């Protein structure tokens, strides 16, 4: 298949789209219509000739959950921030070979509750990548190459309940968890 036929798959009829084990030139043949009901998308083990064109996500404005597994996305830039719906609550980018994230890349995702960037090659994370305040409850950055985190990494994340940093290269965490500590009474 060269691409997914947008008009057939992304419409008011379907709320979920799951595609796996496919080779495509491009994810979609054209930009989806704003008249769609898609709230869940799973892309697993997709080989794309072109990189993911985030502009095709512009009109998928009801999207709540985006799961991308074993699909190469080496970098996420401003195009992601500009076109992914702010209504996304769950974002999973797992085994995507992700190495670089743009500054402010998740800042428009004000409803984001769970962010899983597992089994990638990320070295740097910054607080400025996220909304202020952030609604995030779960951050799972397992199995990356993160060496350090800025001291303000978890500030203005009042709902944060779970942080997973296993299998990284972090040797020291100075004051990074200070914002997560309860205030003295």
Automatic annotation (TrEMBL):
<dbReference type="Pfam" id="PF13855">
    <property type="entry name" value="LRR_8"/>
</dbReference>
<keyword id="KW-0677">Repeat</keyword>
<dbReference type="InterPro" id="IPR050333">
    <property type="entry name" value="SLRP"/>
</dbReference>
<dbReference type="InterPro" id="IPR032675">
    <property type="entry name" value="LRR_dom_sf"/>
</dbReference>
<keyword id="KW-0433">Leucine-rich repeat</keyword>
<protein>
    <submittedName>
        <fullName>Uncharacterized protein</fullName>
    </submittedName>
</protein>
<dbReference type="InterPro" id="IPR001611">
    <property type="entry name" value="Leu-rich_rpt"/>
</dbReference>
<dbReference type="InterPro" id="IPR003591">
    <property type="entry name" value="Leu-rich_rpt_typical-subtyp"/>
</dbReference>
């Amino acid at each position: 298949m060269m691409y997914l036929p947008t008009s057939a798959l992304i419409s008011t009829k379907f709320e979920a789209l799951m595609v796996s084990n496919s080779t495509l030139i491009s994810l979609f043949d054209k930009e989806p219509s704003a008249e769609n009901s898609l709230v869940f998308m799973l892309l697993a083990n997709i080989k794309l000739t072109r990189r993911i064109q985030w502009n095709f996500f512009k009109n998928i404005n009801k999207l709540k959950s985006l799961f991308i597994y074993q699909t190469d996305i080496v970098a996420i830039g401003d195009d992601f921030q500009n076109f992914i719906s702010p209504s996304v609550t769950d974002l999973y980018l797992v085994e995507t070979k992700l190495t670089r994230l743009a500054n402010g890349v998740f800042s428009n995702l004000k409803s984001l509750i769970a962010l899983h960037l597992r089994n990638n090659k990320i070295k740097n994370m910054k607080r400025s990548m996220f909304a202020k305040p952030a609604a995030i409850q779960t951050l799972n950055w397992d199995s990356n190459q993160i060496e350090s985190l800025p001291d303000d990494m978890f500030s203005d994340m009042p709902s944060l309940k779970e942080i997973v940093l296993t299998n990284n290269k972090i040797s020291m965490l100075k004051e990074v968890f200070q914002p997560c500590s309860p205030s003295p009474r």
